[in-house]
Amino acid sequence: MTKTTWRPATALVHGGTTRSQHGETAEAMYLTQGYVYDTAEAAEARFKGEDEGFIYSRYANPTVDMFEKRMCALEGAEDARATATGMAAVSAALMCQVKAGDHVVAARALFGSCRWVVEKLMPQYGIETTLIDGTDLANWEKAIRPETKVLFLESPTNPTLEVIDIAGVAALANSIGARVVVDNVFATPMFQKPLELGAHIVVYSATKHIDGQGRCLGGVVLSDKKWIDEHLHDYFRHTGPSMSPFNAWTMLKGLETLPLRVRQQTESASRLADHLAGKKAVSRVLYPGRPDHPQADIIAKQMTGGSTLICFELDGGKAAAFKLQNTLETIKISNNLGDAKSLITHPATTTHKNLAEEARQELGISGGTVRLSVGLEDVEDLIDDLDRALSGL
To answer: Which pTM value belongs to this model?
Structure first.
């Protein structure tokens, strides 16, 4: 067995590791801004790219480099760039490859900040954008123009867990020479491989499952080396969204346990979704592992597992959603997700509050919609907590 044939769990423990002369077991944390050269000629060669090595930690850093290589081993990507946050990864992946006059098509079911980038930021620079219902391939085809350069989507989506046919969208993009960018946070790299499905670029908020314990912010963009060299490399170096070495080290430690955590969280989420579906106060449950999911056929084709997230609708609107959250004891109110702790949030007043009411309705986000990120607690304790809260509605 070699590193090229390692299965995911092994790659997540050993992938990308570079040891110093001390032979440390755990990855070293290089908290340095710059690097010293033996000679002026060596510095010149380094800057020319004739000598491999590090120049400045805004460009690259040994600890960050290990994290990027480990993510590549997991994702099956040729190259990656780690960023300070998930939104830095999204912004960089989109903005580095478009210019004034280009056109971007995006699924309308996006995290609030992602929609802001698409709807507000990009048009300020002369980049036209179109939002569509991404679950219907015909909508993608209708929205494409000769100047379309990028197709952008989340799958499953935040917060309603819609699933989009990544292979179908990629085929459309390839037919016009455009690129597909997929935010794969909710599926995690354990359950969905967008690059294998034909996507060209994958982004993650490493803040979520990759860290998995609510400690650090981070993001990562993965693609083929040619695209990163031609589009992301200079954008990344000169705009400075780089990840800190400390956060990269934390992410490396998180990756070691990613398969175990995600598997357990998903098993608990699946059980909780079925449990919630039988409750009188709950009018709708959306979960990728259930046969009643609207895109169950696509899920069967492109995902190997469900999700750690559940979206459900409460009768009684916002008042019921607030009462439920305020009654819970084990499950905490937070807009984060992918944590070891179970977290619940009300999208209409938190993550998607800046959307117009009409836009929220289009996405299926009502006053009674709540998003539950399932953690590592005993599932029976989570059931007890939810049952107690639901009984008061």
So the answer is: 0.95
